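REQUEST ID: PR-0412
SUBMITTED BY: lab tech R.K.
PRIORITY: routine
TASK: structure prediction, single protein chain
INPUT:
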Amino acid sequence: MSDLIAVAMSGGVDSSTVAALLKRDGYNIAGLTMQLWNQRRLPELATDETTGRCCSLDDVYDARRVAEHVGIPYYVVNLERQFEESVVAPFVDEYLAGRTPIPCTLCNTFIKFDQFLTLADSVGAKAIATGHYARVGRNPETGRWEMRTARDFSKDQTYFLWGLTQEQLSRTLFPLGEMVKSEVRDLAVAFDLPVANKSESYEICFVPNGDYAAFMDAYLREKGVSREATEGRIVNEEGRELGRHTGAHHFTVGQRKGLGVAAPEPLYVIATDTKSQTVTVGSNDSLLRSTLIARDINWLSWTELSAPARATVRIRNRHLPAQATLYPLEGGKVEVHFDEPQRAVTPGQGAVFYSDDLVAGGGWIE
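STATUS: complete
OUTPUT:
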């Protein structure tokens, strides 16, 4: 295999800076962009506002401009079918099952690393490089590849990367892992990149303006699912009906706004049951949980869990890691006991386990 490195170029500042950095340092690189979603699909969701959406057509254009500016070969590969099968369809299925999915984790696990490494192989690349904020290295004592949180913890993206394998870690470079965002911006300006002042991308590419409910309704209509099939009740913890809704998939645990019911004190979604289309609401205290069970565990830096172990656990991307004890269960599951109850433990989200800055592993919350 050649010394070629394939750079995943999204058209944003981070991946563009990675390409310029590696080129400056003398690496043999090529830029690849993955076309993941047809922005013209579901036209009822069309909006003139594209700022904040990743992987848009404008991003592809920006990535091409950067590649020309840096002076590297550049390719666009259409992965729309694989993206729908591995990310969009599971996203919808999870919501319909009463869970709250994380499409970015699915995309990283099954597209941006799995499929991208296959693409890298097809062009003879030995490794890939991305603009993710994380660090990876090999433990000389165990020979195992390990992932650590980024130096800039405010930009750390390891919560979305827990599904990676040893093979993927061994062939992945994260050049921004030791940098803070301001340093990356300064480098982009120094390289005179055409995207140096481009704003951040936060929204999911297939969900315009972050309106999950509108996307779900449009996608279900496209698939022939009637709206009547998703209507149901909003009840309190005693089971008394407080109102009606047009789909339990519109709600997620911890949600306060948009409930459509009046009450003397704030109410939050504490559970959804998509089989009966029932949404249960309650007080903020009702959201507190001391334990959770995680399934489909992937161990990154640790090899396994054969006995109880201490760790910190994140249950959302912006969640401050909480002290906990991990207990192994049959079937490879893990039971997490928090030292202090945590708010809005949400089925379908990731539970990611850390030992200091080491990413031990992660799984899906049941």
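NOTES: DSSP finds seven helices and 17 strands in the chain.
REVIEWED BY: pending
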